[in-house]
Write a structure and sequence with these properties.
Number of helices of chain A: 7
Largest sheet of chain A: 2 strands, antiparallel
Shape of chain A: globular
Oligomer: homodimer
CATH class of chain A: Mainly Alpha
Order of helices and strands of chain A: HHHHHEEHH
Strand order of the largest sheet of chain A: 1-2
Structural class of chain A: mainly alpha
Number of strands of chain A: 2
Radius of gyration of chain A: 18 Å
Distance between the termini of chain A: 28 Å
CATH superfamily of chain A: Winged helix-like DNA-binding domain superfamily/Winged helix DNA-binding domain
Helix content of chain A: over 70%
CATH topology of chain A: Arc Repressor Mutant, subunit A
Chain lengths: 148, 148
DNA sequence: TCAAAATGACAAGTATAATGTCAAAATGAA
DNA sequence: TTCATTTTGACATTATACTTGTCATTTTGA
């Protein structure tokens, strides 16, 4: 029974993710941003200006794809290149004024959504759920790594 | 703070899903099955023999793609077609003996993994976590639907 | 100094779908 | 029974979100 619930919890990750992504996508309508452009803006907002390989490391996806995401984002004008004193070939990406305004608006809208979603849930329950999910993810990661 | 934890919980869905899928994939090595073929076998095992459109409805993905999945699975010999008295054009798919053996072996292996992963977690915690995740998913689904 | 690593750019491939269309078959209402 | 509608399999196209591989340049670090 414990096992069965754990199984259900784990496989709820897909519908949960899909629902969350649908919400993000819905919140992007009219902004001119795509989901992946938003991801770039969010990283720059949360962790500060940085290079493409830095962003790739944060997102844990290959730099070649992040390069594409970042090039698109650059083209949008919400992000700009700045000279990188540490590496001539790898400019630093930074939010422009418009980019900062936009991502802050988007994030605050998303946080408001979080508040609404959490309305009927206690802090304690959310906290416990997060702990469980973290532990399960960690455990699965280890076991997948072993087997492959 | 509650909001922030909820945010983290929601976005753990991606790494959780990826870790779970990696485990499933690792467990399929040497069986000749792909992840999507396994999905077909699992549905047939859990809900019994049924047609392609039925499977598509269960998986909540378009029948055209499920058709491809099923055709692959048919080619593998783990599933076979049976005449459908209710619809001449739409045969019923059923597990073959080999298919049944294989999916049962895979499921039992995966359940054992569930037990290991749940070792250090209480029934109650898992139960609560599942409730929270179900509630959050439901809430997000509603809100995404409204906005789009 | 020089081999190794990092980076941007580009090409190709893979997995997981959605969408559109067609023809044959099945269904259901008049 | 008929006939419009729906269902189904098959096939084609497109999209998204990646990975992998390669190349030339640049940077680094021993």
């Amino acid at each position: 029974m414990k096992t069965e619930k754990l199984h259900r919890l784990i496989w709820m990750s897909r519908p949960l993710m899909q629902a969350a992504e649908a919400c993000v996508e819905a919140g992007l309508k009219g902004t001119g941003l795509t989901v992946r452009m938003r991801a770039v803006l969010e990283i720059l907002h949360r962790y500060g200006e940085q290079t493409v390989p830095d962003i790739a490391a944060r997102l844990e996806i290959k730099r070649q794809y992040v390069q594409i995401m970042c090039n698109e984002t650059l083209a949008s004008g919400f992000v700009e290149q700045r000279a990188n004193p540490r590496h001539k070939r790898s400019p630093i990406l930074a939010l422009t004024g418009r980019g900062l305004d936009l991502i802050e608006k988007i994030i605050s809208r998303e946080l408001k959504l979080m508040e609404e979603v959490g309305e009927n849930l206690s802090n304690e329950d959310i906290s416990k759920a997060l702990d469980v999910v973290l532990a399960v993810t960690d455990s699965l990661k280890k076991r997948a790594g072993e087997k492959i």
